[in-house]
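Quick log. Single chain, no ligands specified.
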Amino acid sequence: MSIEVKVPVLPESVTDATIASWHKKAGDAVKRDENLVDLETDKVVLEVPSPTDGVLKEIKAQVGDTVTSAQVIAVIEPGAAAAKDDGKTAAKDDAKPKAEPKAEPKDAGQAAAPAKAQAAPAKSSAAPPKSSGGELSPAANRVAAEAKLDPAAIEGTGRGGRVTKEDAVAAAARPPAVAAGARTEQRVPMTRIRQRIAERMMQSKNSIAMLTSFNEVNMKAVMGLRKQLGEAFEKTHGVRLGIMSFFVSAAAQALRRHPAVNASVDGTDIIYHAYADISIAVATERGLMTPVLRNAETLGFAEIERAIGDYATKARDGGLTLDDLQGGTFTITNGGVFGSLLSTPIVNPPQSAILGMHTIKERAIVEGGQVIAAPMMYIALSYDHRVIDGKDAVTFLVDIKDQLENPAKMLFGI
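-> predicted structure:
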């Protein structure tokens, strides 16, 4: 009896999805829980696994088609895969004895060399394909094969240079190199996620009375702590001590003292949140994602670093879920990792504020009447002026600055 493959039930905030890519074609053998197709929604890419072993009998929705919850997109014939594979194995075994006499050597000495030579390709084909960055993940290998990409030309961003699915997708979408002076153009439709990002950015720009305030932070104390305790921290907790955990902790405490910055607008109402669900902006090849650290005010440094690391890995591998992205009362974005010196980040509605971090540069400052060189970072707070007054924004930034320049205050909550 055939089994239908259906679009999973989509969350309330998502009405439909687009078929992004099929990883199998009609007639292919499939295994239970093997990813059949990627569905792209406004926020994330969903994988649809096979419900059983068998053969993909029919595909009912093609790449680019819009589909809805519970819609049938394919049909699988259960158990057919095993029979199909058994037939192939039997045919191969029957053919093998017939082929061997044609390659029969004249003496035993000549027999060893061909056998060894034949074994080498089998050993090579068993190893995962490699690129200039490292091995390809199974999902990346499928994308590379479908897009006819040269694995050696794909740079890997995964652990140890491993090529992730996102790396392969990005390579497939990248326009080919052209000779200097060539006047070529390429029209590429926006992905669903990119369309949603564009929509939300315009919504933010058109519906929020946005203003940005700036300050600067001397990062000497933070960098000194990382140098002094970083190795012991990693040995104890199994995760590196990064700068982001200092900012998340400082922001969580500052939000408690400045509730207007942690508020959101709902029609003519203002909702003040007694918790700090902090969205962390993560750049991916598909666009900017903002997974949420829930109740950040209760998290220790190790918990923050571990959660951020997990989200970064999921983002690179396309594994972020809608639950990871929904909610959030405040956002932190770090353009400094890309070298940004100063920027005005855009508020992520319905939130009312976003904190922008920037690159650390050694600059001359005056301290104790002396001109010294110090590692300085500009920080920016973009905010909804309908909810947050200038005084609240400025004192919030000063609070962040004070904690980062005196990290002991974070430990004692002062």
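Confidence is low (pLDDT under 50) at residues 81-125.
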